[in-house]
Amino acid sequence: MQTISDTFTIRAAQVDDVALILDLINELAAFEKLLHLVIADHALLKDALFGATPACECVLGCEAGEPVAFALFFHNFSTFLGRRGLYLEDLYVRPQARRRGHGKAMLSYLAALALARGCGRFEWSVLDWNADAIGFYEELGADVMPDWRICRITGSALETLALPAVRAA
User: Fold this and answer.
1) Is the pLDDT at 82 greater than 90, yes or no?
2) Which region, left, alpha or beta, applies to residue 26 given φ > 0 means left and ψ of -120 to 50 means alpha?
3) Looking at per-residue confidence, does 122 or 6 come out higher?
4) Which of 106, 69, 55, 110 is nearest to 86 (CA)?
5) pTM of the full predicted structure?
6) Which CATH class is domain 2-124?
7) How far is CA 169 from CA 41, 112, 159, 163, 166, in A?
8) Residues involved in catalysis
9) Is 49 helix (H, G, I), strand (E, B) or coil?
10) How confident is the model over 122-162, as pLDDT tens digits?
11) Would you list the domain boundaries of the chain?
12) 67-77 average pLDDT score
């Protein structure tokens, strides 16, 4: 646990936090108007965070001991740098705890973690309509990469793309 101020701390999530993390994920999805896309459940999240081969990590930001924020992240790799990076999948601060520096504290914590782990960079995505977040990230020194777009393939399109390789196996 890292104490940020008299009232705000950041700690690694524990297995007992899975239900809380899932609640926070759903709150974030509702904020982003994407709740209809959430299929994660307790079992999937527990395995992703605490299974035999964890896919990601999570930290919780707590105000006066009460979790009010979460950050879920994992390592990626930069072929150009030849080093791994830290990728922030989601950062969320509950509305009642915003504008108190918690988001910045969470990002600072993760930046320090990235450096401690020898990462060459720290990255995340932001929705193009979220002007407040974009401005906040730019104030922190982040470059919002206008020339890059995220490509995503899921569901039946993913299955169709995989089919030739599956048949060849």
Assistant:
1) yes
2) alpha
3) 122
4) 110
5) 0.91
6) alpha beta
7) 31, 42, 15, 10, 5
8) 137
9) helix
10) 999 998 888 999 999 999 999 999 888 888 898 899 999 99
11) 2-124
12) 98
